[in-house]
């Protein structure tokens, strides 16, 4: 199958490579000249594909995806299909689908997971869209997913793929935070000789054995006590969106919400919240204030 790929960054390039290895023809485009792109413009990309076209887009949510879809809407033809494999908010998928449908262009949203490991092991794919549109890209999905009867789900209609990925990322936050807090306790205890050895022992036969635990064990082998890593972690929009939707649905998500707050707090050098708390403790209880 011949397909266009927009966005040849860490994820997009690896996906294009996996597709080529699987026997597909990929025409790649990226705004960066040194990306290994095959064409140097969106117009050239569309022209290089025969109608009805399929173009997979791997660009960040927000302005990049908005701009790309607007341009594709003007360049592509009735019967063509766009696949948004980024992390677009599910409500925006529905808006994008309506705008493209007015021009006879279909949209499939695909939540994609497995980061840098996907090229070799395959990607977990969560797909949203009509049965007809999803069937059109089935050969592509079959090549990108891991081997075996798992790693691919048609989650529902437009937006369902990104919704499933949004929830997936929220769960990921909670799992990583639990591992992080547990390891921090091991590090702080005088009873534990080598925290890394404890983590290593959990990898087999333990209820918490997992790929994330394996990655933590490997990180500790490479950098015992993680002394070379700053205690800061970025957070992306998907978990905020999940928590917001969970509030609308009336579903409590305390673990995931706590994990999000922990990441946000990690980026604040001198949090205003703690200044306020310190001032109030001094005012009502006479507790000492640490001055800068």
From TrEMBL:
InterPro entries, alphabetized: 3-OH-isobutyrate_DH-rel_CS (IPR002204), 6-PGluconate_DH-like_C_sf (IPR008927), 6DGDH_YqeC (IPR004849), 6PGD_dom2 (IPR013328), 6PGDH_C (IPR006114), 6PGDH_NADP-bd (IPR006115), HIBADH-related (IPR015815), NAD(P)-bd_dom_sf (IPR036291)
Single GO term (MF): phosphogluconate dehydrogenase (decarboxylating) activity
List of catalytic residues: 165
Pfam families: 6PGD (PF00393), NAD_binding_2 (PF03446)
Keywords, comma-separated and alphabetical: Gluconate utilization, Oxidoreductase
GO process terms (BP): D-gluconate metabolic process; organic acid catabolic process; pentose-phosphate shunt
Location of the 6-phosphogluconate dehydrogenase C-terminal domain: 161-288
Domain of life of the organism encoding this protein: Bacteria
NCBIfam families: gnd_rel, PRK09599.1
Family in the record: Belongs to the 6-phosphogluconate dehydrogenase family.
Protein name: Decarboxylating 6-phosphogluconate dehydrogenase
Species of the source: Bifidobacterium apousia
Organism lineage: Bacteria, Bacillati, Actinomycetota, Actinomycetes, Bifidobacteriales
Gene name, Swiss-Prot/TrEMBL: gnd
């Amino acid at each position: 199958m011949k397909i266009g790929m927009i966005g040849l960054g860490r994820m997009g390039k690896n996906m294009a490579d996996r597709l080529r290895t699987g026997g597909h023809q990929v025409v790649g485009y990226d705004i960066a000249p040194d990306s290994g792109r095959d064409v140097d413009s969106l117009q050239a990309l569309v022209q290089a594909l025969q109608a009805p076209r399929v173009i997979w887009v791997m660009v960040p949510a927000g302005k990049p995806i908005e701009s790309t879809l607007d341009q594709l809407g003007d360049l592509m033809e009735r019967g063509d299909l766009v696949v948004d494999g980024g992390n677009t908010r599910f409500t925006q998928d529905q808006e994008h689908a309506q705008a493209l449908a007015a021009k006879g262009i279909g949209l499939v949203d695909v939540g994609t997971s497995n980061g840098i490991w996907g090229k070799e092991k395959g990607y977990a794919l969560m797909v949203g869209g009509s049965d007809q549109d999803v069937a059109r890209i089935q050969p592509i999905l079959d090549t990108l997913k891991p081997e075996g009867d798992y790693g691919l789900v048609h989650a529902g209609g437009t937006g369902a793929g990104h919704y499933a990925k949004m929830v997936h990322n929220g769960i990921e936050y909670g799992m990583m935070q639990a591992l992080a807090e547990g390891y921090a306790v091991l590090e702080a205890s005088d009873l534990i000789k080598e925290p890394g050895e404890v983590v290593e022992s959990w990898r087999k036969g333990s209820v918490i054995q997992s790929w994330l635990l394996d990655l933590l064990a490997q990180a500790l082998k490479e950098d015992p006590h993680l002394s070379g890593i700053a205690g800061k972690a970025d957070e992306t929009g998907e978990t905020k969106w999940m928590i917001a939707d969970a509030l609308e649905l009336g579903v409590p998500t305390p673990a995931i919400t706590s994990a999000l707050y922990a990441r946000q707090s990690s980026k604040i050098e001198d949090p205003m919240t703690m200044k306020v708390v310190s001032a109030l403790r001094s005012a009502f209880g006479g507790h000492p204030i640490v001055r800068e």
